[in-house]
Amino acid sequence: MHEAIKMVEKYEHQGWPSLARPDLHPPAGWSHALVTAVNRVRHHALSPNGDRIAFIWDRDARSDLFVMPAAGGWPQRLTVERAPSVYWADEQPRWSPDGQWLAVTLHGHVQVVRAAGGLPRNVSQACSGASEAAWLPDSRRLVLAVEQNDSTQLVLTDRLGAMPRSLTQAAGDHTNPQAAPDGSKLVCVYAPRADLNCLALELIDLQSGAAHLITNAPHQKDSQPRWSPDGRRIAFLSQRAGYTEIWSIAADGSGLQQLTHAGADFAEFAWSADGRQLAATLNRNGALDLVLVDAGSGTIKDLRAGRGVHWRPAWAPAGTFITVEYETHLLPPDLYRIDAQSGASTQLTFSNPAALAALQLREPEQLTYRSRDGLEIPALLFRPAQPNGAAILYPHGGPNSQYICDWDIIAQYFVAKGYAWLAPNFRGSSGYGAQFEHANYNDWGNGDMQDCLAGVRLLGALPAVDAQRIGISGGSYGGYMTACCLSRDPDYLLACGVSRYGDANLYSSWAQCNRDVRLYTEMMVGHPARSRAMYATASPIKEVGQVRKPVLVLHGLDDTVVPPESSEEWVDALRRAGKTFEYKTYAGEPHGFLKRETQMDALARMERFFDWYLVP
């Protein structure tokens, strides 16, 4: 933590304090406790013989490992002290090929635990920052990704924690290791420092240690390598054709070919045991449909499509069913078993509380609108059943993320209160091809901000919305968009804004964030020593004098993605400029609030803030 600014948990305000309005109440049937009641089921992995499912369950202030029968039944808890983690930054548990062991990250190390139960064993104690365990076929040895010399390197150890042997040394990051079916080789993703927009595939001979790149196209990203069951080919995702499609290559680096031609972005895939098909998730306007891809022809067949999101497909060995995590705007994430022929689903976990299931949630409509320069911006619009005349624009984080057809109970709560809710997928969002995803490179806080302001104008033109009563709220890059829109809009379209763990000064954030985020920032806007003008232009803290509307700022003090000093600096600038703000920090919270009491407090502050400034 930067010592120049002492960061402690605090609440302060300049202007209107955070007081509840006694005339406004939660919608009928709703409460803050109910909104935060869902225990998220996620990051599942099907056992090698298909009889059990391991998964992470966010509950009891932990993100512990559980195992349950693949046919359904009561879960068994395997860990009891795995710290809570934000779901988008966590990883799957890994089954040993014999189905007797599971590897999972715990306290910054890789731990191995018996699937039948027992205390976890630390197998990476000789390393630091270990993750991404990959079992070899003997179910004894493992490959780990570890932190070494400001890079991510791969090492070989075993389930007893033997002294690791280095497999990679080149400067850059080696991630996503995958062992060949016969255990002789390893493929991984290599991110060279010389080209931050390149992801290459590297093949490593585990006997000799020889390594070479089998793909390495400048400014192209190849990811998620997966061996075919016979070990002859490696399928992977690539943006080479303008979209994230499935490609394949022979193990010796020959025979590169594009397998799918969907003209859309794939997210994940898995081989069937016979090697004839791949189960994959295909992004169609924010819905992640479950499809089957013929491994020979690339023909795509829909298995389950609609307004929902499928995650992490896994094949049963016999090919009869596929397990997925599935969620929609109306249903929280749960585990499902999908018949591989008919697509019929069987729900295996049940996370939705009865009181929440009884409520009438709203399905958003998909639309597009034109930004200032004419670019078409996709968005999802939630229309309330009983409008109160107010609206909220919700820019997502990332920036190369996407607002998709998943569970967003905070949006549903505000819509139930009468707020219209618009979630734009501004330029830079993923899911619409590489050109759109790269459209805000070297342009943070400009074109993407104009996309958001165009969304505010769209909201203001709706018959049920008062154009004077529109707010903005976002987390991470969405918090940065909040700062940009409040600082740089000459028409002052917004009435107020809420920034959750957002940014306003790219210089200091780059200097204080973790390494991965620092490189991610450089990938998109360059190094600050060589791109000073870009960093200065992209930092709205310099226009704090132009902020005229109230701001609520919320930040966790353990955040290493957007350091809490970012909000501290912006609030200090707001204070010195005499602006109206509220500011709350939370001890022990990372990038994304994990504690239920924090979630409830943040929701209450956000609700009170919008009710005061947007509801007459």
Oligomer: single chain
CATH architecture assignment of the domain at 11-15 and 371-614: 3-Layer(aba) Sandwich
Assign the CATH superfamily of the domain at 11-15 and 371-614.
Alpha/Beta hydrolase fold, catalytic domain
Count of DSSP strands: 37
CATH topology of the domain at 11-15 and 371-614: Rossmann fold
* Amount of helix: 10-25%
> Main β-sheet: number of strands, strand sense, barrel status?
9 strands, mixed
- The average pLDDT value, as a whole number, equals 96
The rounded distance between the terminal residues' Cα atoms is 42 Å
Helix count, DSSP H or I runs of 4 or more residues: 11
Q: What is the CA-atom radius of gyration, in angstroms?
A: 24 Å
Could you describe the 3D structure shown?
By secondary structure, the chain is α+β, with helices and mostly antiparallel strands. Among the domains are: 11-15 and 371-614, 3-Layer(aba) Sandwich (Rossmann fold), CATH 3.40.50.1820; 260-350, Uncharacterised protein PF15525, DUF4652 (Lipocalin). Helix content is 17%, strand content 34%. The strands form eight sheets. The protein has a nine-stranded mixed β-sheet with strand order 1-37-36-35-34-32-33-31-30, sandwiched between helices. β34 (470-475), α6 and β35 (496-500) form a beta-alpha-beta unit. The radius of gyration is 24 Å and the shape is globular. The model has no long low-confidence stretch (mean pLDDT 96).
